[in-house]
Every structure is written in structure tokens, then in C-alpha cells.
Design goal:
Blueprint (H helix, E strand, L loop, with lengths): L2 H4 L1 H8 L3 E2 L2 H13 L8 E4 L2 E4 L2 H11 L2 E3 L8 E3 L1 H17 L3 H15 L4 H5 L2 H6 L19
Helix pairs in contact: 2-3, 2-6
Length: about 150
């Protein structure tokens, strides 16, 4: 199964307490997930503040339309928050996926590891991580590799 079937974006939001302060931080948490060992469909491109998942905005819009997340669109930070409906949805989703899909446990473990290690850090702290700084040395718009082992190749 692919990440798309496992919704790591939604799981990350849930595992960070249902709220992520700013979409920039959301992008950096997804990048941390991408760097965890294992297969991932998270497609990241380099922007001025580091790795950026081009599909995140569409994904968040879809979640907003479903009523499972809310976004503070008025402020600069565009905070993302899980709704009550979203919390119930993720709980049921996790139970069902765990029962029906053996590969889901790996995704959930990787998400939990990222959330516990990096969820309380600010976006600025995430940008200062050595591997993000290394990525920032590449040309803007560069597609970043899907795993850390191929990070040395260009």
C-alpha cells in the first residue's frame, strides 16, 4: 500500500495533538516523515525555507471540505487543527487500517516517531536541522530524493 492510502498528513496532525502551527511547520514535519526509513510517496521540492510538499495544500483543502480539519486562513500562519469529526475519523481509520492492512503499522510507527521527536519544535528549529540545511544548498525547485540513502546523489 502507498502513503496515499495511509494518509500520513492526517496521521501527523492527529499525533501532534490535533494542531500544527502553520503550514510551513506541516511541510517540515512531512519532510521529517519522508526521511524516516521505509518507502514513501511524499514528493518534496526545495523552496527558500527548505523542503516543501507540493500536494499538501490540495490535501488540506480536501480535509477541510470533508470537515475533518479547520485552517486559520485569516492569519499569516494558516494553522491547521483537527476537528471533533476529524478525531473520530482518524480513530476509526486507524482501527480499520490496522485490521485490514499489515503495512499500515509501519506508517503509523514512522508518523509517531516524527511527531514525538519533532512535533514540539518550531518551524524555525526544523529548518535549522543539519539535513534541511544541506538540502537548502541545492538549487530552488530541485526535487528531493524519497529516502535519505539516495540523498547524496543528484
Amino acid at each position: 500500500m502507498s502513503d496515499e492510502d495511509h494518509h500520513p498528513e492526517l496521521l501527523l496532525l492527529h499525533e501532534t495533538g490535533g494542531e500544527i502551527e502553520g503550514r510551513g511547520k506541516y511541510h517540515k514535519l512531512l519532510d521529517r516523515y519522508r526521511r524516516e526509513p521505509g518507502e514513501t510517496d511524499v514528493d518534496t521540492v526545495l523552496k527558500d525555507r527548505g523542503p516543501f510538499d507540493e500536494g499538501l495544500s490540495r490535501t488540506i483543502k480536501r480535509y477541510i471540505d470533508m470537515g475533518i480539519v479547520e485552517a486559520d486562513e485569516e492569519g499569516q500562519s494558516r494553522d491547521i487543527e483537527e476537528t471533533e469529526k476529524g478525531e473520530r475519523y482518524v480513530s476509526g481509520f486507524e482501527r480499520t487500517k490496522s485490521y485490514l492492512d499489515d503495512s499500515f503499522q509501519s506508517t503509523r510507527d514512522r508518523v509517531r516517531k516524527v511527531a514525538s521527536e519533532y512535533g514540539s519544535k518550531s518551524m524555525n528549529e526544523l529548518v535549522q536541522e543539519p539535513d534541511v540545511q544541506e538540502d537548502k544548498q541545492r538549487s530552488l525547485g530541485t526535487r528531493l530524493p524519497g529516502d535519505t540513502d539516495s540523498g547524496e546523489q543528484e
